[in-house]
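Hello Y.,

Per our agreement to keep a running log of every chain we model this quarter, I'm adding this entry. I've kept the format consistent with earlier entries: sequence first, then predicted structure.
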Amino acid sequence: MDRNSKIYVAGHRGLVGSAILRKLREKQFTNLITKTSKQLDLRIQKDTEEFFAQEKPDYVFLAAAKVGGILANSTYKAEFIYDNIMIAANVIHSAYNNGVKKLLNLGSSCIYPKLAPQPMKEDYLLTGLLEPTNEPYAIAKISAIKLCRYYNEQYGSDFVSVMPTNLYGPHDNFNLETAHVPPALIRKFHLAQLLHEKRYNAIKKDLQKYPLGFNLNLDLDIGLILKDIGITPEYVKLWGSGKPYREFLYVDDLADACVFLMENYSHREIGEFVNIGTGSDITIKGLADLVAETVGFKGRIELDSTKPDGMPRKLLDVSKIKALGWQPKISLKDGIRKTYEWYVFS
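Predicted structure for the entry above:
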């Protein structure tokens, strides 16, 4: 890519897309194309094809997706598989039809089997059963990987796929009904601390700025509302046993890796896809302790073992991308602090 290349970032308002946009601007790329989901519904083939035919981008970052945590994945199964398959198919096919030089497809580590050996290597794909709670999303992401691979094989395109580990950072989703673990924990402990300090006006502003995703009447007792979802001045209740291990990557590190790969490597060097992560993990309870410390909450952490844990461990083998010359820069502790500061002050 040169600085005048026309680059389309699909999903530029999301966690990943916004980070990629920041990285491109930091590197002084100026010819950037973005469209909100209201301006362009990538699930609609005709609209997607017309957009590509009109804009003719040189490079595409495919970061648009319907995403969510374990609750959302379990609740909106049909939406997760349909929306994500349609977005991937329409963007990838339109990129091929309109001569895109290179496309980078963002996947997810949930593509790996539930009981895959740890750490998970790229060649473990499709070697076992998926985790049931996120199977619809995983199948859609696997389909996108295979689309890129087979378009490369049949048509000679240069479409690459990357599989990031669990992500967090600025512009994350803090809706407790659909959020992933780090933003959900940040918000829960923040609200618990506000309750402890009896800062009820600050809580009301938080609920207005970031709706919880439930039908709430703020005229009711705020303490009772939050207690119903496991947030009190004395304790915060978490789903599951707290024992599963998870790997977390700050989203600006992912963006750095994506631009690095787009600038330097084709699918021939990368292969079918490449993992992007830190190579280290932490228990959910350990993450909760870190978030509580960052927020300043000194109450208890209660675990609800009646709720599902998901996969017992998800750690990526990142030896391939390290061999290509990239590694993360931001520690989990610093990343959580940066994310919390963004949540409070943005």
